Amino acid sequence: MNDLPELLHQAARAAADFRATLADRPVARSIDASDLRAGFGGPFPSSSAPPEEVLQELIRIAEPGLVATAGPRFFGFVVGGSMPAATAADMLAVGWDQMAFNAVSSPAAAAAEAVAGGWLKDLLGLPGSASVGFVTGGQAANTVALAVARHQMLAAAGWDVERDGLPGAPRVRVVAGAERHATIDRSLRLLGFGTAIVEPVAADANGAIDVADLARVLGAGPVGPTIVCLQAGNVNTGACDTLRPAIDLARACGGWVHVDGAFGLWAAASPATRALVDGLELADSWACDGHKWLNVPYDSGFVFCADPRAHVAAVSYIAAYLEGSGITPAPSDFVPESSRRARGFAVWAALRELGRAGVVELIDRCCRLARRFAQGLSAGGAEIVNDVVLNQVLVSFGNDTRTDNVIGGVQREGTCWLGGTTWRGRRLMRISVSNYSTTDADVDCSVEAILRVASGL
Ligand SMILES: *Cc1c(COP(=O)(O)O)cnc(C)c1O
Predict the structure, then answer these.
(1) Mind listing the pLDDT tens digit for each residue in 339-373?
(2) Nearest CA to ligand 1 atom 2
C-alpha cells in the first residue's frame, strides 16, 4: 500500500526530530565512511521495497552520518543554517514538484522568483533593472556572470562567441585579485578561458585588492576586451575589495566588472556594514549565495546582471517547442539549467520571514558574534590574525602544528565545529559565523571549549 500523504508526514517528522536535536547533539561525529556505505547497501537489489520501508531505512542509515551544519555551533567553511519558513518552503517545493522553467511550467514558481529577485536587489542595493537568475550557488553564479561578461566583451569587439566559440576570438584579458575565490578559476576553466589567463592583482594585508596594483596591472596590458573580477567577502578574512575606486579604474579601460559576493554582498543589507561594499551598484554583474548568509536550504544562489539583454544573450536558448509561447524572458533564460527545482519559494519565504529588519539584525548579529569570538579567544591567549570586518575570524595558537592540533581536538570534542586554512603561509583556525540561530551563549561555550582543548595540549 502506498500512502503518500502519510509518507510525507513521516519525512517531515523525521526532519523536525533531527532539527530539534541540533542545538545539543555533537556537531560532527567521527564515522567510518565504509560503514555508512555498507549501510546504504551492497549490490543493487533486484526486488522493490515499500516506500515506508525505504524511508525508515534511509533515516536509520543516514542518521550517524549527518552533520549539524544547520545548527548554531557549526562555524566551518561559510555555512548558513536554514530559516524555519525557508526550510518548510523547500519541502513544499519538492512536494509540489514544480518545474521552475517558465511561467507555463509553474506560474507560481516564476512569480515567486520575480518577487524574491526584486526584494534581493532592493536589499543589496543593486539596480532595480538588473536581471536575476536563481542558480545553485556561488560557483554557478560566477560561471553565468563570467559567461555574460565573455559575451559582452567579445560582442563589443565584433565577435559572436555564442556561435563561433573562443578559437580565433579577439584576446580577452581577465584581471582578478590574488585572493579571489577558487570558484573564479573553475569558472574560467569551464568557460574555455583557462586559468593562466588571469592577470593577478596584489592584495592588502587583510586580503582586499590593492587598488594601486590594479591600476598598474590594467595599465600594463593592451586596451581591449577586459573582465575585472572583484570580491566582496574574502573566504578567509571577510575582507571586501574597495569597489568604488576599483570599478572606476576598470571602467576607464572599458572593462566588465564582476563582483563575487557569495556571502560578502550581504554587507550591503545593513547600514552598519554597507560602507564595506560602497560602490557595489556600479558593477556589471554580481554573484551571491542564498544558502550562506541568508540561511536558505541548499542549494540556492543568485546571479545578477545590470544588462538583462546581455544576460539573456549569453545564457538563453531557443527551442521549437518554446516558439510562440510569448513568455520571454523566462526564469530559465538566466540560468544554466532548463528543468530545475523551484528555488524561489524558499528564498521568498526566508525574506518574508525575516523582513528588512530581520535581515539587518541577522547580518549585524553574525558580525557582532564574530567580534565576540575574537575577543574571547584573544583574552584566552590566542592570536587573532585578521581584521575582523565581517563574520570571519582567523586564529593562531602559536605555530602551525599547535594550531592544527587545536582544530583537530575541537572537531573531536564536539561542542562546535570549525576548520583550518592556510593564510599567508600560516596554518590558522577559521571561524565563520553565518547561522541565524547562533547566540552569544553558543559563542561563549565554543570559546570555552576551544580554549580548554588548547590548554590541554
Ligand atoms: C562560497 C563562495 C563561493 C562559492 O559558492 P558556492 O555556493 O559554494 O558555490 C564563491 N565565492 C566566494 C567568495 C565564496 O565565499
Answers:
(1) 999 999 999 999 999 999 999 999 999 999 999 99
(2) 262
Question: What is the mean pLDDT of the segment spanning 47-65?
Answer: 96
Rounded to an integer, what distance in angstroms lies between the CA atom of residue 271 and that of residue 455?
39
Query: What percentage of the chain carries pLDDT values higher than 70?
Result: 97
pLDDT exceeds 70 at position 328: no
Pocket mutation for ligand 1, best pick of 139, 277, 303, 392 (most atoms within 8 Å of C-beta): 139
**Residue (of 11, 5, 34, 88) closest to 296 by Cα position:** 88
Ligand 1 pocket list (CB less than 6 A)? 78, 137-139, 181, 183, 231, 233, 235, 260, 262-263, 289, 301
Long-range interactions of 91-96: CB distance < 8 A, separation 24+:
91/11, 91/12, 91/15, 92/345, 93/341, 93/342, 93/343, 93/345, 93/346, 94/341, 95/8, 96/342
User: Which residue in the block uniquely carries the three cell numbers 527551442?
Assistant: 319
Centre of ligand 1 to C-alpha 336, Å, is 17
pLDDT at 49: 96
Contact of 27 with 417, CB cutoff 8 Å: yes
Q: Atom of ligand 1 at shortest distance to CA of 263?
A: 15
The Cα–Cα gap between 253 and 40 comes to 56
For residue 16, give every residue at least 6 positions away whose Cβ sits within 8 Å of its Cβ, in sequence order, or none: none
- Give residue-wise pLDDT tens across range 155-179: 999 999 999 999 999 999 999 999 9
- 3 state SS of 301: strand
pLDDT in tens, 221-264: 898 999 999 999 999 999 999 999 999 999 999 999 999 999 99
Residue with CA at minimum distance from ligand 1 atom 6:
138
Put simply, whether the predicted model's pTM sits higher than 0.90 gets the answer yes
Q: Hunting for cell 585572493 — which residue is that? A: 179
Q: At 347, is the secondary structure helix, strand, or coil? A: helix
Would you state the pLDDT for residue 324?
61
At 327 the pLDDT is 56
Q: How far is the CA of 446 from the centre of ligand 1 (A)?
A: 25
Q: Average model confidence (pLDDT) for the chain?
A: 95
Say what the alpha-carbon torsion angle 232, 238, 241, 243 is, to the nearest 10 degrees: 40
Residues contacting 69, CB < 8 A, separation 6+: 76, 79, 81
